[in-house]
Amino acid sequence: MTSNIYDRRRVNGPARSVEPVYIDAIEPIAFPDGLRNDGRSLDQLRPIYIKTGPLAAQQTFSSTAPSGSAYYEQGKIRVSCAVYGPRQGRKSNPRIGSFDCDFQYAPFSCSWKKRSHIRGADEKETAQILEQAIAPAIRLEAYPKACIDAYVTVIESDGKFATISAAINCISAALADAGIELYDTVASCSMSSDSSRWVADCSQPEEDASSCSLLVAYMPSVDEITYLLQNGKSTLDQTEQAVQACTNSCTRVYAVISRYLQSSMEQPGT
Question: Whole-angstrom Cα distance, residue 226 to residue 37?
Answer without folding.
Answer: 32
